[in-house]
Predict the 3D structure of the following.
Amino acid sequence: MRRRFPTAIGMLAHAARWALISIAGGSAPTGALVACMLVSLIATPVVDRLHLPFAAVAFSAVVSLMPGFFLFNAATGLVELVSIGSSAPAALLTGIVTSSATAFLIIMAMTFGLILPRMLLERVTPVPA
């Protein structure tokens, strides 16, 4: 149970993220926010009851949402910008900024999506002994 729990809620979170992006037309940061909020809402009462570390369970469920694609695109663009120099096209700069901003927004969405529901649930519900 303890080993499969993060996998199960991670699968549910990814399904919610996929549905939000593909079916509802949401953005990647919005999908990450909803997925992480779902994980936090499900994981909080379970980890409190089983005395498991919240960070380990919740983050392991959503670690694959990390925006590696956007970070690598931004890094590739920066390397290309350095190699081209001052004659770099404006589209390259736009691509770097877009990829960097998207990665930043996804990371912030993951952070707030995991932490805020946990904090709110801790205020509302008592922790079992």
Summary: Residues 5-124 form one domain. The two ends are 20 Å apart (CA to CA).
